C-alpha cells in the first residue's frame, strides 16, 4: 500500500490527517519495538468486562509459559483512533486489537486483519449466528467476539412502584419521556433518565441513530443522500434533548456508557437505555447500590414497528502487521473460549460472565437462574436487523451505524453537533442543519453514490 493510499484510508476511517500521525503515534502504550518476541501487546477498551479480563491474565500466562501480556487500556473514542491509525499505517504497535463489528468487515476486506483458525474444542458453531456473521467475511472469521450486545431499557422497579407506574411489555418513547419527568426528584439527586451524551460515533450516535430508526429516520436514503434534514431526525433529536434537559442529570453531554453506568449504580437514574451488557453490572450487589431493584424491558419504540435496539460486539482480532500471530491466536482463543466463561463464573458468578456470544450460555440453566436479564439480552440480539434497521429502505448494513469507511468520520462529526445541542450551545435545528451539511460534503468527497 502506498503512503498516499494509507493516508486516504486513514482519513476515511479516523476522520482527519492530524489524527492519523505516524506508524507508532501516541504515547500511552508500549512501543512494539520494545516488546520482546515473547510479549503480546493487547489494545482494549476500558469497559468492565475487559478490565476483568486483564485481571485474569495470569491464567493465560500460566497455561502458556514464557509468554507475557502487556495491556494498553484506553477510553473508547481514544482506543478507536489509536488502533485505526496503527492498522491503517501498518504501525505494528499491537498484536491483539479490541475492535467492533463496524471495523471487522471493512478491515478484513482491506487485508488489515489476519484470518482466525480455531480447533474443534473452540466450537465455532456455538457462536450466536448474528454475532458470528458480523465478525466474518465470506464465511471466514476475522475476529472472535469477546462479548455481544443489543440494547434495552433498564429501570428502577422501586421508583416505578412508588410513582404508581407499570412498565409496558414494549415501552414507547412517549411512555419513557412522560415517566422520566414523573420519576425525577432533583432534590434527592435522582434523575428520570440517563442517556448517552458524549460525542462519538460509538457513543451518543449509537443511541441516537438507533433512536432515530424507531422514529422512522435513517442515515441515508437509497441514493446515499444524508437524511438529517428530515422530520424524523428532528422529532428524535428534539425528543432526546427535551427529556434530557427536563429529566436528565447535569453535565449529560459529557456522559457515555461508563459515566451512566456509574450514575445508575449510585442510584441516580430511574431509567437508562443502553447496551444489554450493562445488566450484569447494575444487578451486581458488589458494584450497584440498587442491584435488587432493577428491571429490564425492550428498547423503546415509537409505534412504527422498529425499536431503538442495536447490535454490537467487542471482538479480538490480529492486525496483519503483527509478527506474533501464532501467540496472538492463542490469546484470543483463551479469552473467547467456553473455558474462560467457566473461569469467570467460578470467580465472579454466572451473572458476570461476558454475554452475547455463545448459544450454550443461554441454554445454561445456571446462567438463566443467575441472570434475570438473559432472556431480554438474547431477544435484543436476535431482534436486531442489520439489513433493515429502519422503517424505510436503506442502502447500507448496520443498525446504529452504516458499514462504510466514511461513517466513522461522519458519525463523530454529527455526534459533536448533537452533544452541543444537548449542552445548549447550539439549537436542535442548527445541529441538524450542520450535521446534514457536513455529511453531504463527506459523501460528495467520497464519490457517492457509487
Task: Provide structural commentary.
The protein has 20 helices and 10 strands. The strands form 3 sheets. Strands 2-1-3-10-6 form a 5-stranded mixed β-sheet. A 3-stranded antiparallel β-sheet has the order 8-7-9. The model is unreliable at 1-34 (pLDDT under 50). With 450 residues, it is an alpha+beta fold.
Q: Describe the strand arrangement of the main beta sheet, using strand numbers.
A: 2-1-3-10-6
Mean pLDDT: 91
Given the structure, what is the number of helices? 20
Strand content: 5-15%
Radius of gyration in whole Å, from Cα?
21 Å
The residue ranges in which pLDDT falls below 50 over 5 or more consecutive positions are 1-34
The best one-word shape is globular
Indicate the multimeric state: single chain
Along the chain, the helix and strand elements come as HHEHHEHEHHEEEEHHHHHEHEEHHHHHHH
Largest sheet: 5 strands, mixed
Number-wise, the strands total 10
What percentage of residues falls in helices of 4 or more residues? 40-55%
Based on helices, strands and strand pairing, what is the structural class?
Answer: alpha+beta
N-to-C CA distance = 23 Å
Amino acid at each position: 500500500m502506498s503512503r498516499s493510499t494509507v493516508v486516504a484510508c486513514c482519513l476515511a476511517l479516523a476522520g482527519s490527517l492530524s489524527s492519523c500521525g505516524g506508524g507508532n503515534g501516541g504515547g500511552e502504550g508500549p512501543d512494539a519495538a520494545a516488546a520482546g518476541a515473547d510479549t503480546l501487546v493487547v489494545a482494549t477498551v476500558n469497559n468492565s468486562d475487559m478490565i476483568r479480563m486483564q485481571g485474569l491474565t495470569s491464567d493465560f500466562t500460566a497455561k502458556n509459559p514464557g509468554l507475557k501480556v502487556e495491556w494498553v487500556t484506553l477510553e473508547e473514542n481514544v482506543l478507536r483512533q489509536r488502533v485505526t491509525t496503527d492498522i491503517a499505517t501498518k504501525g505494528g504497535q499491537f498484536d491483539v486489537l479490541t475492535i467492533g463489528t463496524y471495523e471487522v468487515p471493512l478491515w478484513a476486506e482491506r487485508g488489515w486483519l489476519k484470518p482466525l483458525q480455531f480447533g474443534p474444542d473452540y466450537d465455532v458453531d456455538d457462536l450466536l449466528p448474528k454475532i458470528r456473521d458480523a465478525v466474518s467475511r465470506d464465511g471466514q472469521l476475522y475476529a472472535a467476539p469477546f462479548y455481544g450486545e443489543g440494547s434495552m431499557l433498564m429501570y428502577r422497579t422501586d421508583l416505578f412502584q412508588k410513582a404508581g407506574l407499570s412498565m409496558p411489555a414494549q415501552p414507547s418513547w412517549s411512555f419513557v419521556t412522560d415517566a422520566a419527568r414523573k420519576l425525577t426528584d432533583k432534590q434527592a439527586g435522582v434523575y428520570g433518565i440517563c442517556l448517552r451524551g458524549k460525542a462519538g460515533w460509538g457513543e451518543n450516535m449509537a443511541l441516537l441513530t438507533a433512536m432515530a430508526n424507531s422514529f422512522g429516520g435513517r442515515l441515508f436514503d437509497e441514493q446515499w443522500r444524508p437524511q438529517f434534514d428530515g422530520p424524523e431526525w428532528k422529532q428524535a433529536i428534539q425528543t432526546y434533548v427535551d427529556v434530557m434537559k427536563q429529566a436528565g442529570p447535569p453535565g449529560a453531554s459529557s456522559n457515555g456508557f461508563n459515566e451512566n453506568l456509574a450514575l445508575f449504580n449510585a442510584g441516580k437514574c430511574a431509567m437508562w437505555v443502553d447496551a444489554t451488557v450493562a445488566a450484569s453490572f447494575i444487578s451486581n450487589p458488589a458494584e450497584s447500590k440498587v442491584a435488587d431493584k432493577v428491571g429490564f424491558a425492550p428498547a423503546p419504540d415509537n409505534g412504527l414497528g422498529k425499536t431503538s435496539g442495536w447490535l454490537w460486539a467487542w471482538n479480538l482480532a490480529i492486525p496483519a502487521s503483527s509478527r506474533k500471530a501464532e501467540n496472538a491466536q492463542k490469546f484470543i482463543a483463551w479469552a473467547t473460549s467456553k473455558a474462560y466463561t467457566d473461569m469467570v463464573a467460578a470467580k465472579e458468578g454466572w451473572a458476570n460472565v461476558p454475554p452475547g456470544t455463545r448459544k450454550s450460555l443461554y441454554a445454561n440453566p445456571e446462567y438463566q437462574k443467575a441472570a434475570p436479564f438473559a432472556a431480554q439480552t438474547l431477544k435484543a440480539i436476535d431482534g436486531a436487523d442489520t439489513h433493515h434497521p429502519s422503517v424505510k429502505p436503506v442502502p447500507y448494513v448496520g443498525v446504529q451505524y452504516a458499514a462504510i469507511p466514511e461513517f466513522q468520520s461522519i458519525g463523530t462529526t454529527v455526534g459533536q453537533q448533537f452533544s452541543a445541542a444537548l449542552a445548549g450551545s447550539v439549537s436542535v435545528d442548527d445541529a441538524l442543519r450542520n450535521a446534514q451539511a457536513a455529511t453531504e460534503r463527506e459523501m460528495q468527497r467520497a464519490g457517492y453514490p457509487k
